[in-house]
Structures are given as structure tokens and as C-alpha cells.
Design brief:
The chain has 91 residues and is of the alpha+beta class. Strands 2-3-1-4 form a 4-stranded antiparallel sheet. The chain is elongated. The model has no long low-confidence stretch (mean pLDDT 91). It has one domain: Alpha-Beta Plaits. It is 40% helix and 36% strand.
Length: 91
């Protein structure tokens, strides 16, 4: 069994409040969960209205499948986000 995770940090320049940030976060997380079988959650920077940090975890019996899935999720989130992906930390 292989477990991979990533920490994605997005910058939301148009967010004027935490409510704006929550809207962007909820939309991105819900769309990604609906498309992929992965664990996704906001994990950090909850009090900063222009910075969104999301954690993604993938578990698979095949390491290559886990890596492909995580890479695909990251690409999808980068394309779908109403924000700029500024940092990726993978483990």
C-alpha cells in the first residue's frame, strides 16, 4: 500500500474577506472530491483571507497509480482554481 500527499498553497488576489476565501475553497474542494477518490481539506492559513492551503492524500495498492493520481489531482486543481497555485510540497 502506498500513501502520497501534497500540500498546495494558492493565492487569491480578489478575496476581500474570509467569506470570499471560503467560497473559493469550497468550490475547489467539492469539484475535486466529486471527480477523484482522494482526501482533500483546507489544512492551514485559515485566518489569512488571500492564502489558501489545501492538503491532498491518495492511497493505492500500486505506487505508480498513486503518483499518477496525485499528479492528475494537482493539475486539475491548478486549472480549476479561481486562484494562483504558488507552492506545491509533496511527500
Amino acid at each position: 500500500m502506498t500513501t502520497l500527499s501534497a500540500k498546495l498553497t494558492f493565492y487569491i488576489p480578489h478575496a476581500a474577506s474570509l467569506k470570499d476565501k471560503r467560497r473559493v475553497c469550497r468550490s475547489l474542494v467539492d469539484r475535486t472530491r466529486g471527480r477523484f477518490n482522494a482526501s482533500i481539506s483546507e489544512i492551514d492559513t485559515q485566518d489569512m483571507h488571500r492564502t489558501l492551503t489545501i492538503g491532498v492524500a491518495v492511497v493505492s495498492g500500486d505506487a505508480a497509480h498513486a503518483r499518477r493520481s496525485l499528479d492528475e489531482i494537482i493539475r486539475y486543481m491548478e486549472q480549476q482554481a479561481e486562484a494562483e497555485l504558488i507552492k506545491i510540497e509533496q511527500s
